[in-house]
Design brief:
By secondary structure, the protein is α/β, with parallel strands linked by helices. It has a single domain, classed as 3-Layer(aba) Sandwich (Rossmann fold), CATH 3.40.50. Helix content is about 50%, strand content about 15%. The protein has nine helices and seven strands. The chain has a seven-stranded parallel β-sheet, with helices on both faces. Strand 4, helix 4 and strand 5 form a beta-alpha-beta unit. Helix 3 packs parallel to helix 4 and helix 4 runs parallel beside helix 5. It is globular and about 50 Å long. About 40% of the residues are buried.
Length: about 270
């Protein structure tokens, strides 16, 4: 896959879909990789470094203003033309029982950070693209949960709905400029997210590989698509959101999860 980007910022790059994006981009694309696990970032950087590629790692807590500033400064130095807002947090359980600090962190990382990074970096990306007669790109990693109210993932699903709507509207805002914006909505993906969030292992049976998710997202970006759906259930969630009355949607989600559990246990 040949893509024109000379430098990319990937948040949440230490594992999962973020690391898969780093592997999927061509050797000619410089990388700015950020996350909290510096050892994992450095190991990934070492595996990706080439003579023709510069890989920069930034250890940062992007739930904080200081962490976001550090990432923005590194991205500006690299003069990125691809922004991949991938980092995400989730807590599985009733929202009223989850730790208040976890609920807030989800909103900071999943909502505030993509807005702050995009607003800070996109004007420069567009200006460089216009000067260089090329295109810039933004990938917003959302989720199939963006289409539905999901009990036990209430705050997470709500943040992913924000990501989806923000990316789609942002794409309309920049129409006429040399930049493409993709909302990426994967289904269950084989990453560490499930264990970290407290979700059950059976939920991820048959999950899509993060490498497949990253490749499909980059292919969609190259083809100027606004929305990329990947993985099991990715087509059903938008359909259910359109066809099922809103008052029944959360019950449908619960029923679907019970069916998935029975299937995994058979």
């Amino acid at each position: 896959m040949r893509l024109p980007f000379r430098a990319a910022l990937i948040t949440g790059a230490s594992s999962g879909i973020g690391a898969a994006f780093a592997r999927a981009l061509p050797n000619e694309t410089d990388l700015v990789l950020t996350g909290r696990d510096i050892q994992a970032l450095q190991e990934l950087a070492a595996s990706l470094s080439r003579i023709e590629r510069k890989v920069t790692t930034v250890q940062a807590d992007i739930a904080t203003d200081a962490g976001r500033r550090a990432v923005i400064e590194a991205a500006e130095r690299a003069e990125i033309d691809l922004l991949i807002n991938n980092a995400g947090l989730g807590s599985f359980g009733p929202a009223y029982r989850n730790a208040p600090e976890d609920e807030r962190a989800m909103v900071e990382v999943n909502v505030v950070t993509p807005v702050v990074l995009t607003r800070a970096l996109l004007p420069g990306m567009i200006a460089r693209a216009e000067r260089g007669i090329s295109r810039a790109g933004v990938i917003m990693v959302s989720s199939i949960s963006a289409f539905l109210p999901v009990p036990r993932l209430a705050t997470y699903a709500a943040t992913k709905s924000f990501n989806l709507h923000y990316a789609e509207a942002l794409g309309a805002d920049v129409a006429g400029h040399p930049v493409d914006v993709v909302a990426l909505c994967p289904g269950f993906t084989a990453t560490k997210f499930g264990a970290r969030s407290g979700m059950k292992p059976w939920m991820f049976q048959g999950a899509t590989s993060p490498d497949k998710v990253a490749r499909k997202a980059l292919r969609g970006l190259r083809r100027h698509r606004r929305l990329v759906l990947v993985g099991a259930g990715s087509r059903l969630a938008p359909l259910a959101a359109r066809l099922v009355p809103r008052r029944f949607l959360s019950k449908v989600v619960v029923a679907a999860m019970k069916w998935r559990k029975r299937r995994a246990e058979d």
